[in-house]
Each structure stands twice: as structure tokens, then as C-alpha cells.
């Protein structure tokens, strides 16, 4: 696929050199984290000249300067301008932290979005934010000892985040009213960027997963709660206050079961892990999610029906999304995605029942990154927020 050309940035004579260097770095980083078409992280110098609009001789000089600064790596090719150029692995490290209702996951990665180390541990449900941040800090310290200094952190939380604060005590009680960014930066001593976990999952699937190549997609995360991350024109859509995508609290039946948000008949009340566990209570000796999935695949009709019911309701909720947004793809992630086609096939049926004919066949696929999606997205967020400073030599 041809590289997409970008227009050179304007600037004064004195700043032109720096601007051109930054232009090349931005193209290399954009490709590395999946923002450009090929997303393989490498360009020849001739390709860099075409994409940036800079003269080949200018690109050659810039590449030499960036290599001397340790920001890019080159590999010999056919002629100087045929050599490949990529962002250096040593250009900097970032970290991702993903909090759930009962877990914390931490990863260290480089500025290409590649994860170098990761760990996931359980937390007590209803944990206090100081406890969770302390655990994450301990995990990160151990990783940093092996991989070096981290420059920025991306952090995901499983609730609507407005100005870095969670306002709902019902959804994530241990974090209600906390300035999560300030608390995290106090714990880690590093700049932190906070985002909803479903948004991070959407970012990861769009850049590195099954959503790659789609300019509009929706990532639905189904675990203890249900939320969605929305990609429109290759960008995350947050809404005016940052709460876009809270589909778990769409009303499916106003006479339905009470939801933790205080409403009745929310989509979350029918599709969450807790709902499936509740339906199977007393039907199996072991009612954790993996045991129910195994039972369903082994022919247990009660377990199969539990996923079918959850999937049909999920499809109802998805119909609202595709009718409104018309994405080219819906990706289902979170713990419930481990059920695979047990859940997804009935979700497609529910979607077809309730969606307009023009969007009823919107693909519904399982997350490619699995339970790691939000963590990968957190690393990508940190990478794209890290400014690369050129050292002139």
C-alpha cells in the first residue's frame, strides 16, 4: 500500500531544522503505533522523503542527526536512501496501568507501543484507590529495575472519567471523587494520562488488533461492567464530558432487574459476568466464568442458555449503537469475550433482530488482544503523549 503523504509544517528559517526533524519523528512514531497505513514501523529514506514532502538530501541529513541522538535506528539497504529507518528501541520507555473491579495490570513498553514486560494481579472487589495505586507502584518499580526509567504512564479506569475524576460511587466506589491523575502522579512520580478502560481497549484494537484498517469501530468491554470505546475517523470519541460509550446503562427493560447505577433493566444487568454467574448459581459445582464456558462447550444446556440470553441482550444494545453510529466493525472484549462464539453468535442474532437492514450485518468479532486490550491501549496512550526531544549534535 503506498505511504500516505503528509504536508510539511511551516516554520521560520531558524526553527526549520527542528521542525523538519520533528516531522520525520512524528511519521516514524505514527507508523510504529499504527496511525499510518502500513504500520510496520519502518520506512526507507526515499519513503520518508515522499511522505514528509522533504527533499531526499534533507531527509538523509535528518536521519543522520537523529541516529546520532539515539532516537532512530538504521539498517543498510540498497544505497543510502534505500536503508530502512525506524524509531530506536532505546528512544524511551513508557508504562501502562489498567485497573479493573478486581485486578490491576501493569506493563512497560517502548515508544513503538511494544510491550517489554507485563504483570496482572487480583485485587479485592471494592478496593480503595490508595491500595490499588500502591500495588501498581510496587509492580512498576520491579519492572523499572529491569528495563530502565519510564517517562510517561497511561492509566485506565473502568468508569466514566471527567477531568480525571470518577463521579459515580456505584460503578467504581473506591475511586469516587478522587483526582485520579494527581493521586497516580503522587504515587508514581511520573506524568500520568488517565482514560476510561473501554476507550483504551478501542485504541488498542484500532491500532494493533482486529480493528486495524477500520476508520470507525466500536469496542465493547464486558466484565463486571459494560462499556464501549468509540472510534470515529480514526480518533477516539469522548463526547462533551468524556462519558461517551456508557452503553451498559442503556435501558433494555424498565421493569427489569435493578442495576447498580440505580436504574432498572440496564444492558449491564443482562450481559455482565455477574449476571451469567447468577444464572448458573446452583446449576454447576463450580460457577466461575471459565468453568461455565467449559460446561457450555461440553454440552451443558443451562450454561449454553446463559450465554445465549446474555448474547441476545447484547445484540439488542449493539443494534442501538450501529443504528446511531454505523461503524464498520464491533469488537467484543473483556472477560465475557472468553465465551467466544457461545456469546457472539447470539449477539449477532440479537443485532439483526433490532437493527435497520442497512446495518444489520455489521461484523461482530472477538477482541484480538483479549484481556490485555486495555493495558496495551494504556501503553499506546503513554507513547503518543511522550514528546521526543531532538538533541542537536
Helix-strand category:
alpha/beta
CATH class of the largest domain: Alpha Beta
The CATH homologous superfamily of the largest domain is termed ATPase, nucleotide binding domain
Q: Calculate the mean pLDDT score and round it.
A: 88
**Strand order in the sheet with the most strands:** 6-5-4-7-8
Proportion of helical residues: 25-40%
CATH topology of the largest domain: Nucleotidyltransferase, domain 5
Largest sheet: 5 strands, mixed
Give the strand tally: 13
Rg of Cα set: 23 Å
What would CATH call the architecture of the largest domain?
Answer: 2-Layer Sandwich
The general outline is globular
Describe the structure.
- The chain has 393 residues and is of the alpha/beta class.
- It has three domains: 13-90, Winged helix-like DNA-binding domain superfamily/Winged helix DNA-binding domain (Arc Repressor Mutant, subunit A, Orthogonal Bundle); 92-200 and 375-384, ATPase, nucleotide binding domain (Nucleotidyltransferase, domain 5); 210-368, ATPase, nucleotide binding domain (Nucleotidyltransferase, domain 5, 2-Layer Sandwich), CATH 3.30.420.40.
- It contains twelve helices and 13 strands.
- The protein has helices spanning 13-32, 45-52, 56-68, 129-147, 180-188, 197-208, 267-271, 273-280, 289-297, 301-325, 341-354, 373-384, and strands at 42-44, 72-75, 84-87, 93-99, 103-110, 115-122, 150-157, 192-196, 217-222, 226-232, 235-237, 330-333, 364-366.
- It has a five-stranded mixed beta sheet with strand order 6-5-4-7-8, sandwiched between helices. A five-stranded mixed beta sheet has the order 11-10-9-12-13, sandwiched between helices. It has a three-stranded antiparallel beta sheet with strand order 1-3-2.
- A hairpin with an 8-residue loop joins strand 2 (72-75) and strand 3 (84-87).
- Helix 2 packs across helix 3 (56-68) and helix 8 runs antiparallel to helix 10 (301-325).
- It is globular and about 70 Å long.
Amino acid at each position: 500500500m503506498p505511504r500516505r503523504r503528509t504536508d510539511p509544517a511551516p516554520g521560520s528559517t531558524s526553527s526549520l531544522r527542528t521542525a523538519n526533524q520533528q516531522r520525520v519523528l512524528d511519521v516514524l512514531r505514527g507508523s510504529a503505533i499504527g496511525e499510518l497505513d502500513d504500520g510496520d514501523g519502518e520506512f526507507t529514506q526515499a519513503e520518508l522523503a515522499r511522505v514528509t514532502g522533504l527533499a531526499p538530501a534533507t531527509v538523509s541529513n535528518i536521519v543522520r542527526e537523529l541516529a546520532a541522538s539515539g532516537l532512530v535506528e538504521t539498517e543498510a539497504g540498497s544505497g543510502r536512501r534505500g536503508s530502512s529507518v525506524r524509531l530506536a528501541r532505546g528512544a524511551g520507555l513508557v508504562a501502562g496501568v489498567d485497573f479493573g473491579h478486581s485486578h490491576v495490570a501493569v506493563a512497560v513498553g517502548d515508544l513503538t507501543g511494544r510491550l517489554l514486560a507485563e504483570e496482572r494481579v487480583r485485587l479485592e472487589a471494592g478496593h480503595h484507590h490508595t491500595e490499588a495505586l500502591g500495588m501498581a507502584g510496587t509492580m512498576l518499580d520491579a519492572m523499572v529495575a529491569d528495563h530502565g526509567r519510564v517517562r510517561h504512564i497511561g492509566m485506565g479506569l473502568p468508569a466514566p472519567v471527567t477531568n480525571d475524576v470518577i463521579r459515580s460511587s456505584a460503578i467504581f466506589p473506591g475511586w469516587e471523587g478522587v483526582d485520579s491523575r494527581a493521586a497516580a502522579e503522587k504515587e508514581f512520580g511520573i506524568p500520568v494520562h488517565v482514560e476510561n478502560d473501554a476507550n483504551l481497549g478501542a485504541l488498542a484494537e484500532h491500532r494493533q488488533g482486529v480493528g486495524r484498517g477500520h476508520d470507525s469501530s466500536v469496542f465493547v468491554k464486558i466484565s463486571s461492567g459494560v462499556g464501549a470505546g468509540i472510534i470515529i475517523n480514526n480518533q477516539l470519541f469522548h463526547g462533551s464530558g468524556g462519558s461517551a460509550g456508557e452503553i451498559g446503562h442503556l435501558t433494555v427493560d424498565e421493569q427489569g432487574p435493578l442495576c447498580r447505577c440505580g436504574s432498572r433493566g440496564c444492558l449491564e444487568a443482562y450481559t455482565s459476568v455477574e449476571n451469567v454467574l447468577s444464572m448458573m448459581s446452583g446449576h454447576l459445582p463450580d460457577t466461575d466464568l471459565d468453568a461455565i464456558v467449559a460446561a457450555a462447550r461440553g454440552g451443558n444446556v443451562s450454561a449454553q442458555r446463559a450465554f445465549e440470553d446474555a448474547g441476545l441482550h447484547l445484540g439488542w444494545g449493539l443494534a442501538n449503537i450501529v443504528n446511531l453510529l454505523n461503524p464498520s466493525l464491533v469488537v467484543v472484549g473483556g472477560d465475557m469475550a472468553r465465551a467466544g462464539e457461545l456469546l457472539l453468535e447470539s449477539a449477532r442474532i440479537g443485532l439483526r433482530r433490532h437493527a435497520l437492514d442497512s446495518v444489520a450485518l455489521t461484523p461482530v468479532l472477538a477482541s484480538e488482544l483479549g484481556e490485555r486490550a486495555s493495558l496495551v491501549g494504556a501503553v499506546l496512550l503513554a507513547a503518543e503523549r511522550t514528546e521526543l526531544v531532538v538533541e542537536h549534535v
